[in-house]
C-alpha cells in the first residue's frame, strides 16, 4: 500500500463506482473538476490496452481557497486525485490521495489544519459508502 494514498475496494461495477464515489465526495463539499480516462489515453496515444483506470480530480472550493491563500504555490498539488480502476474480481479499486501526506510537504504550518480538514472530509466520504472496504497494508 502506498504511504500517500488510502485504498478501498468497492463492491460495485466500475461505472457504478464512479457515480458512488462522485456522489459521496459531493456530500462532503467536493466537486470533480477533472476526469481523466487513462485507458483511453493509453489506447489512443500508445496503442496499448490497459484496464479501466480513471483519475478524478476532486476539489473542495472553500478549502482550496484557504490553502492557496496561505501557500500560493500549493495549486501545483491540487486537486485531490481519486483513482478508480478495474480489479481482477467483481470489486472496483479506489485509491485516494492522503491530503495530509501530500499537502504538508509545503512545510507551511498554516497548511496543516487545512490538510487535516480535507483528510477528514475525504475519510467521511468513503466511510459513508456502505460497500467500500479499506484495503490493509
Automatic annotation (TrEMBL):
Q: Which InterPro entries match?
A: DUF302, TT1751-like_sf, UCP021774
Concerning Pfam families, the annotation shows:
DUF302
Q: Which CDD domains match?
A: DUF302
Give start and end of each DUF302 domain: 36-99
Gene3D superfamilies per the UniProt record, alphabetical: TT1751-like domain (3.30.310.70)
Q: What SUPFAM superfamilies does this protein's entry cite?
A: TT1751-like (SSF103247)
The protein's name in its UniProt record: DUF302 family
Amino acid at each position: 500500500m502506498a504511504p500517500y494514498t488510502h485504498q478501498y475496494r468497492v463492491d460495485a461495477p466500475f461505472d457504478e463506482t464512479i457515480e458512488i464515489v462522485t456522489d459521496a465526495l459531493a456530500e462532503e463539499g467536493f466537486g470533480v473538476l477533472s476526469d481523466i480516462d487513462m485507458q483511453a489515453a493509453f489506447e489512443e496515444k500508445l496503442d496499448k490496452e490497459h484496464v479501466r483506470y480513471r483519475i478524478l480530480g476532486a476539489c473542495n472550493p472553500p478549502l482550496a481557497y484557504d490553502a492557496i491563500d496561505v501557500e500560493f504555490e500549493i495549486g501545483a498539488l491540487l486537486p485531490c486525485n481519486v483513482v478508480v480502476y478495474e480489479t481482477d474480481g467483481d470489486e472496483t479499486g479506489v485509491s485516494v490521495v492522503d491530503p495530509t501526506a501530500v499537502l504538508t510537504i509545503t512545510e507551511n504550518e498554516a497548511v496543516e489544519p487545512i490538510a487535516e480538514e480535507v483528510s477528514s472530509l475525504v475519510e467521511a466520504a468513503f466511510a459513508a459508502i456502505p460497500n467500500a472496504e479499506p484495503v490493509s497494508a
